Amino acid sequence: MPNHFVFNFGNHHWKNRSNSFLDIKISTIELHIRRNVSIQAGDKFIALQNEELDAVFTHFGSVEKIEKIKDDSIQELAFVFKIELRSEGKLQINNQLADFAYSLKRITNYLSPEKHFNRSYSNIDEFDFETIREGRIYIARTAFGRLINSMELTHRINFIRHYVSDDPEAFLVKDKNYIEAYNRLSNYIKIIIIQPARQLREAFSLFKEIVNYDQITEQTTFQKESENTLKVKADTISNQVEIVETFLNKHDTQNTLVSQEVDSKIEPNFLDYLETQVSSLESDQIFSNSKKFRELDWPIILS
């Protein structure tokens, strides 16, 4: 059985290559490294390269030959490997590393997935290899992961406590139901974040009619001034209302791009859009166009 790798060609240990070397069927490249390698002829690889500011999977293929060579001019490195690669295809759709943060088993640092592939080559299992090669972006787990990580920390903690106390078995099982998890998170956001935000906005509008506006902006806060004078300014009602207005404006009026192949109208806010995607799934093992997730704004953080 072949091994599967991600070759990070942006790493400085790869030498003697042109920018388009993988666009030809057979190419040769050198790996200068301080240790022996586990790469063998017949192994499969995914190419990772930097394009502008993004790390992008660009090609897939196999290792034709690998040869350890001697180079006396390179004193500081222990090994030089000459590797012949066969390019078997180009990855052009769903190929940005960041989009796979919640779809690859290897990734656990969801906010900086590139850290898992910093080395010149990284082992991945066959599942992750096929996920990248086929451009599989798992909708439910991506929606849940990006949504919960866009929330302010206190809300994340509160949601997890709520989730665990409500159904501890569902939270602890290895193969989680991300469709159910997303639905619970969406309900939490609507009830605990959006509904109180709207109530605060409406109350503030009524409050301005009966109280001097300067008193609201400078003196009315969510805590006693003696508790922490440094936080008073940040916790004034007017400041919180401004934060809420920004959040609700994004949530209520955001234009979500609808792909050309979809005829039905999608509600113009990101939660409703995600719900139409997730609720249509019968299983979490379904993939989608990552462009839709990249174009969404995730306006959840509230102070």
Would you count the extended β strands for me? 7
Low-confidence stretches: 255-268
Strand-pairing-aware structural class: alpha+beta
The rounded distance between the terminal residues' Cα atoms is: 52 Å
Amount of helix: 25-40%
Overall pLDDT score: 80
Number of helices: 10
Largest sheet: 7 strands, mixed
Give the amount of beta strand, in percent: 15-25%
Form type: elongated
- What are the secondary-structure elements, in order, as H or E? EEEEEEEHHHHHHHHHH
Radius of gyration, rounded?
25 Å
Strand order of the largest sheet: 2-3-6-5-4-1-7
Protein architecture, described:
Residues 255-268 have low confidence and may be disordered. The protein has 10 helices and 7 strands. Strands 2-3-6-5-4-1-7 form a 7-stranded mixed beta sheet. It has helices at 126-134, 139-149, 153-166, 168-172, 178-210, 213-218, 229-232, 237-253, 270-278, 290-294; strands at 4-8, 14-15, 26-33, 44-51, 54-69, 79-90, 121-124. With 303 residues, the chain is of the alpha+beta class. Helix 2 runs parallel beside helix 5 and helix 5 packs across helix 8. It is elongated and about 85 Å long.
Brief write-up:
The chain has helices spanning 126-134, 139-149, 153-166, 168-172, 178-210, 213-218, 229-232, 237-253, 270-278, 290-294, and strands spanning 4-8, 14-15, 26-33, 44-51, 54-69, 79-90, 121-124. It has 303 residues and is of the alpha+beta class. The radius of gyration is 25 Å and the shape is elongated.
